[in-house]
Amino acid sequence: MEKKLKVDINIEGTQITHFSTFNLDQRFNEHHTFQLRFNHDMVEEYNAVTLENSKDFIGKNITVQFGTADSGENKFSGIVTKVELSQSHGFHGDILVSGFSPTILIDRGPDLGSYLNKSLSSIIQLATQDAPANDLNLNIKPTNTSPIDYIIQYRESDFEFINRLSAEYYEWFYYDGAKLNFGKPDKLEEVALIYGRDLHSLQYAMQIAPLKHNKFAYNPRQDELLSSEPQGSSGSTPDLSHAISASNKVFSKVYNEPLAVRVNNKKEIDDFVNNQQKALISELVTIVGNCDNPMVGLGKILNVSMSVRGTGAFELQDFGKFLVTAVYHQIDGIGHYQNTFEGVTADTERIPVAEAEKPNPDMQLADVTDNADPDGHGRVKVKFKWQCTANDVTEWLRVVSPDAGSSDKVSKNRGFVFIPEVGDQVLVAFEEGNIARPVIIGSMFSGKTGTGGSQTNKTKALTTRSGNTVILDDSNGSINVKDPSGNVVTLNGDGTVTIYAPNTLTLVSKDININAGNSINITSSPAKEGGGDGVINVTAKKSIAVAAQDEGITTNAKKDIAFTSETESIKLSASAKDITFDAAAGKLSSSSKSAEISSTDKMHLNGGSLAHIIAGDVEINQS
Q: Which Pfam families does its entry note (predicted)?
């Protein structure tokens, strides 16, 4: 016998006591929708074709409670978003009030967000922090409680963002009529249904699907490719086990796919793969039914039994327990109620999300906030140039280089090593178009930091933070290398090279060869301001050899010339011609312990007008 249904509908103080129809559609990972139809004259003036009173329903909260005296009540709270006047055939018509669950409050439009080292709970709380707490009651209890190194919300509403997190991390996400749940609740309400009594139709299905898969993800920190295949599952029921076995026989090939989320180690990728496997398996055994029990609700467990004829009377036979993943309620104006529901096996831990859209990110501008990579890998942290509530700096991001790697002789930093400076503006792209994997692809000048180009575009330059600069000038072909202290090396573009050091120029090598096709000039002069000594020092630890192959060697000095040997002799030798000592304006002096002057042929001592030979004894002998 059909039980009397009690229905209570209230739109912020306005009781709707009579109505034609009320429909409520509820699904996991979606907004719930409702439509209420009632006579125009209930809230508007008779014969007035207007929405004068009912227009105030827009934006108001609606509460609906329905149930029977012995079963309890099913409750729903929503928000009215639309009011319509529906007329036809000359009648005054009906008022249609429709809207959504309060989840619509966090589906306000595309937004941006950057979250560093935060748990799923913290991320969801931050994303929904400005939603009215009275209208949106949150129950956040995800299975994954560990901090996630980095997550980006990109041009997604808060609802779309949370829905994507539900899909990527395989967490339950649904509104139960009163609370928005993220994560499987601790306890699920159970409702008994009996086929042949309150359960009028039932479709129980088994199907197959590809289950064998391998996920992989590259970990640049360790330079390793992580991969994982799910552990085998036997299924919680005989039917589920059969569906798994049949799936693996038909779809025997293991398909490979990159992992969509960030992982740092083997355990993390194993967990994701096993959770995906559980979600895929949950769809192998499903149920669809129609009943008149108003307590059927989203996220509840249906304990289904069959009323079958026994030997003497009808007996109840257990059919199984199922988790409700969708339910569509219908109530008419005379209290008739029915619903259509969809479900999966009751022990389902992970539920796949079919409608979660993945962002398709464009390249983004960001500012470098840190380049002191603790691992010394040349990574940087940046902050996106976004205007949003949550804009944490990023995780350590790799920087693209024109050439990067190692070799048999260079273990690290072979290639082009330039790390952006703190404060630099950079361009961020995303590996494989995946919002979870940002990389730095280059730096960009702004109007405050950039110069160059002009009509001739003649100058190319490389400048470091301290002012070290390499300038290539295409107007004259010159190359100029300089540092902040004033040291300059210039390849002038005309066949000449200039090296300038304001203090000291030092050349160090095992051997140094200086060759000139014409001449070599070495000059040391005091500065015009009087600084410096103007001295040239040539020092060798062993010997110095000065030779002129074709002509002479000239040594000139304004004052004295001194030749000194501390331990050995000084020899002047002319193998082919003469040695001449000439002191035109003074005298020639030679002093030593003993002096010998010898000639193999003749010797002439000429004193001009007078010659003196002085000694204690003087001997002049003929040989």
A: Phage_base_V, Phage_GPD
